[in-house]
Amino acid sequence: MPDSPSESQAVPDSPTTVDTTFTPPSIILPAIHRSESYTHHSPIPPQLPEGTPCILGVDEAGRGPVLGPMVYAVAYLPASQTHLLTSHGFDDSKKLTTAVRESLLKTTCTPGTDLHDWLGWSITSMSARDISAGMLGTGKGYNLNAQAHDTTAQLIREVIERGVNVTEIYVDTVGPPVTYQAKLQKLFPNSKVTVSKKADSIYPIVSAASVCAKVTRDVTIDVLAGEQEMGSGYPGDEKTKGWLKRERDPVFGWDARITRYSWRTVTDLLEKGDGPGVVWPDDDDEEGARITSFFGGSQEGGLAGWYGRPVLDF
């Protein structure tokens, strides 16, 4: 995992707010502008006694878009306090309006509220650049499912390492539920793991994670878009299509901080574009050097090294 700022680290050379209704503490502007993946943990809920059995839910936002990060989130609270989630109306984030999602997370972040007292949460924002670097890396690459599985495991691990007694884990599946559940159960033998399709609609604790992920991604998209009309980032969104058409440089394509170059949408547009073609010959040149050698070398150098870096390193 790249070194990243957390909620407690001040960054004096960067603005601390963005133009949105609610800016959650999971928005780390320097990392977003540098297209770095990062993790944010909320404080441990103040009413959570040490050792209290807790349930934890996992969900994501932004798996399908061609623009912006994929955000994974976990939410946790004592099993005895799950009624708070239903009373506040947590549900699959896609079923809630933007205003309702923001209100729920804002309440969770507001001291003195019951959600703040009992509900903890964390996110990992996987940047577009790092997603592409993994998927386009050397060898077989680091596919999106593997990135998602590793991010989920790392988030759960970090929550447990912070002293939370996680006894039950609920996860919205990525890939076959049975296989994924067995993988997580092996990693976390002291917790009962349940992996399910539509878990964000079935289990309120997964719904809470869904809200944390969705709000964080939506605000991140606002940050990346600035004054531009970028839409949701999904390939089928007309505003996103318009942005891709307007912002494509005929030679260099798009801003790599925003665009997932590993997506078919992007490669198709580049291949069909009106820019000059580029051919990288493999034949030896007259000096005996190969152009492709520029892409090789150590993991730390050259484009192969950059594209081969995994999103997570643990």
Automatic annotation (TrEMBL):
<feature type="binding site">
    <location>
        <position position="172"/>
    </location>
    <ligand>
        <name>a divalent metal cation</name>
    </ligand>
</feature>
<dbReference type="InterPro" id="IPR024567">
    <property type="entry name" value="RNase_HII/HIII_dom"/>
</dbReference>
<feature type="binding site">
    <location>
        <position position="59"/>
    </location>
    <ligand>
        <name>a divalent metal cation</name>
    </ligand>
</feature>
<dbReference type="GO" id="GO:0046872">
    <property type="term" value="F:metal ion binding"/>
</dbReference>
<feature type="domain" description="RNase H type-2">
    <location>
        <begin position="53"/>
        <end position="275"/>
    </location>
</feature>
<keyword id="KW-0378">Hydrolase</keyword>
<feature type="binding site">
    <location>
        <position position="60"/>
    </location>
    <ligand>
        <name>a divalent metal cation</name>
    </ligand>
</feature>
<protein>
    <recommendedName>
        <fullName>Ribonuclease</fullName>
        <ecNumber>3.1.26.4</ecNumber>
    </recommendedName>
</protein>
<dbReference type="GO" id="GO:0043137">
    <property type="term" value="P:DNA replication, removal of RNA primer"/>
</dbReference>
<dbReference type="Pfam" id="PF01351">
    <property type="entry name" value="RNase_HII"/>
</dbReference>
<dbReference type="GO" id="GO:0003723">
    <property type="term" value="F:RNA binding"/>
</dbReference>
<comment type="similarity">
    <text>Belongs to the RNase HII family. Eukaryotic subfamily.</text>
</comment>
<dbReference type="InterPro" id="IPR001352">
    <property type="entry name" value="RNase_HII/HIII"/>
</dbReference>
<keyword id="KW-0540">Nuclease</keyword>
<dbReference type="InterPro" id="IPR004649">
    <property type="entry name" value="RNase_H2_suA"/>
</dbReference>
<keyword id="KW-0255">Endonuclease</keyword>
<keyword id="KW-0479">Metal-binding</keyword>
<dbReference type="InterPro" id="IPR012337">
    <property type="entry name" value="RNaseH-like_sf"/>
</dbReference>
<dbReference type="InterPro" id="IPR036397">
    <property type="entry name" value="RNaseH_sf"/>
</dbReference>
<dbReference type="GO" id="GO:0032299">
    <property type="term" value="C:ribonuclease H2 complex"/>
</dbReference>
<dbReference type="InterPro" id="IPR023160">
    <property type="entry name" value="RNase_HII_hlx-loop-hlx_cap_dom"/>
</dbReference>
<feature type="region of interest" description="Disordered">
    <location>
        <begin position="1"/>
        <end position="24"/>
    </location>
</feature>
<dbReference type="GO" id="GO:0004523">
    <property type="term" value="F:RNA-DNA hybrid ribonuclease activity"/>
</dbReference>
<comment type="function">
    <text>Endonuclease that specifically degrades the RNA of RNA-DNA hybrids.</text>
</comment>
<dbReference type="GO" id="GO:0006298">
    <property type="term" value="P:mismatch repair"/>
</dbReference>
